[in-house]
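Lab notebook page, bench 4
Experiment: in silico fold of construct C2
Operator: M.H.
Input chain length: 162 residues
Purpose: comparison with the prior construct
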Amino acid sequence: MPVQYKTAWASLSAAILVTAYYSWNLLALKGNITLHSSEMMSLARNVFAFTIIIQVLIIFIHFVSKDEPDLKEQARFISLRSGRVALLFLIVAVASCAAYLIYVADTRSLLLSPLISAHLLVSVLLAAWILRYTSELWMYHRARRSAIETPSAPSDSNQLLS
């Protein structure tokens, strides 16, 4: 198993835990959301801090670990492809939010304050984080399945995820 595969599992687990923490605390704020603006800002700050700390630790572990060159090349390819999936999701989600705010929302009935818009963007970022590592793990699974279906020659040094 490449180290990137293991760190993808760790990152996905961290993303799910941070999202659960964020959702739990956001849903715990009952009543008028504008009354809880300091708690909401604190929650957003905590989520960003947890995310940065967790990702720095995972990246540090990833760079300290050693992989074989052929596994490293495959891991890089899969990571780039899953990053493209997450980036496409981010572009579509942010463009949809902007289009809603510009073209669809009526200013008299607009329920999105800047604080709520910020939390909407935090939710989009967390969803993109989960999507990135889910697609990466799916690509590893697909690569492993294709390697099992079409085994390489014994002299081939480029065995896929062995």
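Observations: The chain has four helices and no strands. The CA atoms of residues 54 and 60 lie 10 Å apart.
Next step: discuss at group meeting.
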